[in-house]
Amino acid sequence: MDKAIRKVWIASGCIFVLLFCSLTYIQFFDAKALADNPWNSRTLYENYGSQRGSIVVDGKEIASSIPSHNGYEYQRVYSDPYVYAPLTGYFSSIYGSTGLENAMNDELSGNSDSQFYDRLAHLFTGGSAQGATVELTIDSQLQTLAYQLLEGHKGAIVALNPKTGEVLAMATSPSYDPNLLSSAQNESVLAQYQKLNNDKSAPLYNRAIAGKTYAPGSTFKIIDAVAALESGKYSAKSVIPNPQEYVLPGTNTALPNYVNGHCSSSQEATIEWALAQSCNTPFAQIAIDLGQDAIARTAKNFGYQDDSLRIPLPVSESVFPSDLSDSTLALSAIGQYDVRTTPLQVAMMSAAIANNGVQMKPNLIRSVKSHNLSSLYEFSAKELRTSTSPKISQQIRDWMVNDVDNGIASGAAVSGVKVAGKTGTAETGVNGQNNSWFTGFAPADDPQVALAVMYEDVSTIEGTQLTAPAAKKLFEAVLNK
Predict the structure, then answer these.
(1) Active site residue 218
(2) Looking at 218, 316, 327, 387, which residue is catalytic?
(3) What's the start-to-end Cα distance of the chain, in Å?
């Protein structure tokens, strides 16, 4: 009998120790992760009971909290919602938070480490915590223009300051109204979220950085050109065969040259001319000659295979495939096959060329200020990596200027200004549709802005009519300020 009782006591003691350890872990070690979880409804209810900080662009609140009489003390509201929704995200009592509402939640809710003394003061005064104001690097006029240029299409536009990494615009389409998801009317929120989530055009995606990645098409030829120069095997004077069809090694499949430029006018091409006319066959041959490792290494130097980038929104990793045969390497060299990227990454590539080969870390946050206006964070430019040498970046810059002056990117030309650019067309394999690209920067001799413009599911002709002309309007908006 004593033995049985002893076993019961031992089992009870073990259960107590396990429960105590679990509770201790949750209370002390896992507390922050649980509090930061966007699905933690308790944290959300607490935040609805306090004055959450504002998100600000050019001095105007684009997300703010106002007194509410709908069951919560405060209501989250968004101005110009469709223009900014991919950035702000939403703050919902049912579905949690996304976008900057999630990425900057600690600061907006007043719970960041840097706001500890504010919270301590509130304990003595009996007041509730107040969140910090988050000011963005976004240029409101450029952001609005970018969204207007996309309206009616699926796509994304990113504009960066190549010298600092500041994100000047990040617009995607289609967009949505986050006010519909921050409402206190739960039935309405449920219905609106289901409608948005089931929408095949995916309005909840921030197409510029996440949710989906894209084949970069001929914009990837910039990386081929850099790899060619870095190898020492090619120079500005090198001449490459330019057949109208190139039979992919080990196959009976012919890779056609680009048909909408002047590629058919010459059987040979320099890299500059091939880039300006976006000829496929010279770059396929260059990639096979250099080998997979050389192209992959250059791609990585421009940001591919980096899964750690935060701006502070998380950014999907851009990928250059591995274990390629010569035939799939040729397709990858023209930005097809399994090459995948984001509009942000394409803009970063051009920004690195514009900035003498140095890629700056992109960032959306200009400053964070507490409710009493003390500074918690101020933007400072940071180098992310060296993508290539100043000499090679200058050569690529000159070639990209020639692409706008004398090539198929002429739609981006701005009178009196040197503009550098490169177009791209990536086949989607669906009903003859393409993803159409433009990337570049201006002024080429003193870059103020680097762009990536991408329209989804358009015909080749429609893409030509949309991408480069959109870039022209964006360049003019920046340069005319």
Answers:
(1) yes
(2) 218
(3) 91
